[in-house]
Amino acid sequence: MVLIDDKVISSNAYEPALDLYPVCRSLSKMSNAHSLRVMYLLHKICWDAPVEDHPIIEIPIQELVSYLGIEKEEDPLEVIQKAIFYIMENPIHIVRLRSGEDPRTWNGCSWIIDYIFSSSLQKIYLHINPAAQKYLLHLDALEHARVDSILRISRTFPIWLYITLTNASRYGKYWVVSTDMFAKMSMIEDREVWIVTRIGRDTLRVQLGAFTTPAVKEEFTKARKGKRDVHFIPWEIRKGNILTVRTHSELQFNICTLKKWPGAAYSHYVFSFNPSDDAGMITPPDLENLPTIAEEFQKRSGIMGSIKLLTLNHLPR
């Protein structure tokens, strides 16, 4: 058993972007593999060059057909149109709680302002919303995720959890995050679920589906009496979002908690990606060898050489 001491706590410095959750909400509602691949393509384009001054992206249709691997589709153009439609129909949407007379505010941001398919030029023109660029840049978090896993998980919170923990797992065998920061990153306090979900114990049960066990209680007792740190003892996963991620993706992990002192609320969540902490972790066989989104892109990255960034004056009408 691994002792969760200061060395382990500081061994993984991963910090996801605070705006990643609303991005995941948008992706979850698209529910379309081709939309996700187009989104990652837009991310790579914006990563290489800001779109503020050149917000029009010109892509040859045939190159996009090859990138999406839809050459054998009966109507590839219709497939592309649907992918773009789902992107436009699912903008960034953020709900924030505020103090005062108006405690809740809503704001939204579309990914694409408009688009044009030119059959004569055999090109598609996407007018990117400059306000969406910062969110597109956050899609670097998708690099090590898998399209099939995202589609299978389907719902916002577990998709965010899957993407976040997939990245955290690349920085070390353990990721320790305070309950306050976890709530902020996952926007628990910004959603209606906050009415029934509180940071700490209820988050574990309601949001994560993690439940304490006799072994966990015994370890806390021993640590308190011995005045030492706790060993990682996995909590039991019975239901909820952790179970959703573990049964619908290749990512396998466990969770335990830390307390600042006996009787206090849980102060930190400890996520373990260490196989030695195995507690029922079984990767679905059909997901084991699937490529990541970045690996998919790498095989078809030749499309980048055919893409042009244009000003509004060059948008065909």
Q: Which regions are unreliable across 5 or more consecutive residues at pLDDT < 50?
A: 192-200
Element string (H = helix, E = strand): HHHEHHEEEEHHHEHHEHEHEEHE
Number of discrete helical segments = 13
Main beta sheet: strand number and arrangement? 4 strands, antiparallel
Q: How much strand?
A: 15-25%
Fraction of helical residues: 25-40%
> What structural class do you assign from the helix and strand content?
alpha+beta
Averaged pLDDT: 87
Radius of gyration: 22 Å
| Total count of domains | 2
Distance between the termini: 66 Å
Strand segment count: 11
Q: Quick one: overall form? A: elongated
Strand order of the largest sheet: 4-5-1-11
Summarize the structure.
About 40% of the residues lie in helices and about 15% in strands. It is of the alpha+beta class and about 325 residues long.
Identify the notable features of this structure and list them briefly.
alpha+beta; Arc Repressor Mutant, subunit A; four-stranded antiparallel β-sheet; three-stranded antiparallel β-sheet
